[in-house]
Specification:
Blueprint: E1 2-6, E2 9-11, E3 17-24, E4 31-38, E5 45-50, E6 58-59, E7 67-72, E8 77-82, E9 91-99, E10 112-113, E11 117-121
Parallel strand pairs: 2-11
Antiparallel strand pairs: 1-3, 3-8, 4-5, 4-9, 5-6, 7-8, 9-10, 9-11
Length: 123
């Protein structure tokens, strides 16, 4: 599976933005996909993950209740809907995939990464 993340940009605090992660590969539906982010000077951190069945998405505490991860296996795309964004959400966002159904929160479990897309939250 190869991944391409897009949809980043400048958004005002309290606003919304939707990121997309487009995948290529015939077995996309068997992969768990996660979103991670990395702010300047900080380590990469987990944001959200969704298994192939999309039954139980997992969220970081910092974004739970504000962000929604979803997937459309027919389109081989995973989305991250970012609502009520805050300046601290500013980061480069990456999507990554791992084979199997467990929505792990550690980046160490993810084997394929897309290029990042920059999200800037500022007025």
């Amino acid at each position: 599976v190869q991944l391409q993340a897009y949809g980043g940009g400048l958004v005002q605090p309290g606003g919304s933005l939707r990121l997309s992660c487009a995948a290529s590969g015939r077995t996309f539906s068997r992969y768990t996909v996660g979103w991670f982010r990395q702010a300047p000077g900080k380590e990469r951190e987990f944001v959200a993950a969704i298994s192939w069945s999309a039954v139980t998405p997992t969220y970081a505490e910092a974004v739970e209740g504000r962000f929604i991860i979803s997937r459309d296996n027919a389109k081989s795309t995973v989305y991250l809907q970012m609502n009520s964004v805050k300046p601290e959400d500013t980061a480069v966002y990456f999507c990554a995939s791992k084979y199997g159904a467990s929505p792990d929160t550690s980046h160490l479990f993810y084997t394929t990464w897309g290029q990042g897309t920059l999200v800037t939250v500022s007025s």
